Description:
Elements: H1 7-24, H2 28-52, H3 59-64, H4 71-109, H5 112-142
Bound molecules: fe (ii) ion (2 copies).
One fe (ii) ion binds at residues 13, 45, 48, 124, 128.
Amino acid sequence: MPLEIPDALRKEHHSLHSQLSHLLSGSGKVKEAAALIERSLSPHFRKEESYALPLLGLLPDLAEGRDLPDLEAAATMARLLEQELPGMLADHAEIVGLLKGLVDGAAAEEDPDAFSFSVALKDHALFEEAVLYPAARLVGRSLKK
Ligand SMILES: [Fe+2]
Ligand SMILES: [Fe+2]
């Protein structure tokens, strides 16, 4: 497996972005809250996609004990991830905080799509913090052995 974002994770980011674009095409409080979220979420996704999630593409090779491709690029990503992790967790706190405005807008405007997106994005952040970030860090550590 190459040093690429696993398809399942790429699709999840794509799906979240599509849902957010849909909310941005609406109006009122939901649109306003969605615009604030977009401002923080887009740079956050770019960080993840450039140096956190591609490390997870190495998991099948690591699990099988195969030689890893792109070791130098992977080591650079792993270093960046360690450096940037506190900021990425702060992004999550900020984004989850902004979801409150979206949930309020969704309640006021009876918008089930905005509710679904809020739940999906919060779950995504929790999953990353509990599983994906630690897994990417472990991949990084395994490169040093
Ligand atoms: Fe993400
Ligand atoms: Fe994230």
